[in-house]
Amino acid sequence: MVKVKDLRTALERLAEIPGQLVETNVEADPHAEISGVYRYVGAGGTVMRPTREGPAMIFNNVKGHPDARVAIGLLASRRRVGYLLDEAPERLGFKLMEAVSNPIEPVEIPQSEAKCQEIVHLSTDPDFDVRKLVPAPTNTEEDAGPYITMGLCYATDPETGEKDVTIHRLCLQGKDIISMYFVPGGRHLDIFREKYAKMGKPMPISVSIGVDPAICIASCFESPTTPLGYNELACAGGLRGEPVELTRCKTIDELCIANAEYVVECELAPGEFIREDINTNTGKAMPEFPGYIGAALPEVPVLKVKAVTTRKSPIMQTVIGPSEEHVSMAGLPTEASILLMERRALNDFVQNVYCAPFGGGKYAAVIQVKKSAPIDEGKQRQAALLAFSAFRELKHVFLVDEDVDLFDVNDVIWAMTTRFQADVDLIPIPGVRLHPLEPSSAPAYSPSIRHHGIACKAIFDCTVPFEQKDRFKRCVFKDLDPAKWVPELF
Ligand SMILES: [Mn+2]
């Protein structure tokens, strides 16, 4: 198998595995068609049905962009992420937990060795237009415009010199103008942005697109697992066992990912804002991970594009917000964050964690525990409380025993059906801050909610009380090797 070190080698590896990658030479319009097609091919996640788990896909013939290709759905399957990170799918949370605990800092390589600068387009060129250079899809016909959905935004704290990398939704608004959305609530780049704004200085940001999938996943870690000052690129280094390579940008004082397909070199203008749907007036931004289209905001910060650099024949990477790809990117770091917290507090009481697709990777976690003695009764609820501390955007925790397959949502709901009584096993936690994109967390929905983005979180304890375990034994079938009868299936 080819070693994965960038987007191209990731695609090469998938091409070696049956059913993991398809290509089309039929022309596709980045305006609504690429996402429209992939919805049927393999988006999954919280996308409206019909959709399914399927292969990743490459569009070789992109309307208006003769030199480019577009890759989508690279991470839209847990099994596929396993192939790309060299790990069994059910162990991915543990692999990320190890990586984030054993980071390897990125290194800088000379520009002459950085593939991302094979071609350089400067914004001082009179023909420069980021919309013509970067084939960013408009995901639905209502969207505010073309969005860079897989851009690794890299910037530096102007006071401490500390670095951060995060993925933000970036809308191409003009020939050298991009709007940048920050979810309110102290995202690390937003803290940097406020510091630059106070100094009245533009903030250099490099946006690297089309990179090693380990970087896309590691960049989705958040506080408290990766607090302010933790460069998530070091976690990507930990995942691969070698450092991420960076190089110096051409026009701004910042580094970018050396093997990226595209780098958009930008400066965030202090005190400048733009209405997100300035070009469409639809009131809509783009499809977001909870499965609904995000509202266009009246005021979002403005990036001034200074240059676009690319590899030769670059491959644009994109994601459908509500797809399984988001579940992988957000959910795996969340699983790792919860596991890390549980290990520290409760040793190995928690067996595994699954941030299931129905929560978009953020809102729902299934936690599997093993009660071995009377003293373990109640520890499962302590485990749930720890999970809420490990990740603040968690809404629902489902607790199951060791004989339930936590990755099989049917098995989890079976546990809820036969091991759960709502009056004693449903634990509501009202008035807790959640996330602005979750639409039921709004005063209009419930009188208990004081502000938009506050929720009644809940624990669903679907575990058997320890002293009653004997009454809840699942049917035991004869242990044998089925391959004797149907070798073609096993
Ligand atoms: Mn961070």
Features:
UbiD C-terminal domain-like, 12 helices, Pnp Oxidase, Chain A, binds manganese (II) ion, alpha+beta, 490 residues, 2 domains, 9-stranded antiparallel β-sheet
Topology:
Elements lengths: L6 H9 L5 E4 L8 H9 L14 E4 L9 E4 L5 H8 L6 H10 L5 E2 L10 E4 L7 H4 L13 E2 L2 E6 L6 E5 L2 E5 L2 E4 L7 H12 L3 E7 L3 H6 L14 H8 L4 E4 L6 E3 L4 E13 L9 E4 L5 E3 L4 E11 L4 E4 L5 H23 L3 E5 L9 E6 L9 H12 L5 E5 L8 H10 L3 H4 E8 L20 E8 L29
Parallel strand pairs: 1-2, 3-18, 4-12, 20-21, 21-23
Antiparallel strand pairs: 2-3, 5-17, 6-9, 7-8, 7-11, 9-10, 10-17, 11-14, 12-13, 14-17, 15-16, 19-20, 22-23
Bound molecules: manganese (II) ion (MN).
Your description of this structure?
The chain is an alpha+beta fold and 490 residues long. It has 2 domains: 96-319, Pnp Oxidase, Chain A; 347-472, UbiD C-terminal domain-like (3-Layer(aba) Sandwich). It has helices spanning 7-15, 33-41, 78-85, 92-101, 130-133, 188-199, 213-218, 233-240, 324-346, 379-390, 409-418, 422-425; strands at 21-24, 56-59, 69-72, 107-108, 119-122, 147-148, 151-156, 163-167, 170-174, 177-180, 203-209, 245-248, 255-257, 262-274, 284-287, 293-295, 300-310, 315-318, 350-354, 364-369, 396-400, 426-433, 454-461. Helix 10 links the parallel strand 20 and strand 21. The longest helix is centred in the C-terminal third of the chain and has 23 residues, at 324-346. It is globular, with a radius of gyration of 23 Å. The site of manganese (II) ion has 5 residues, from loops.
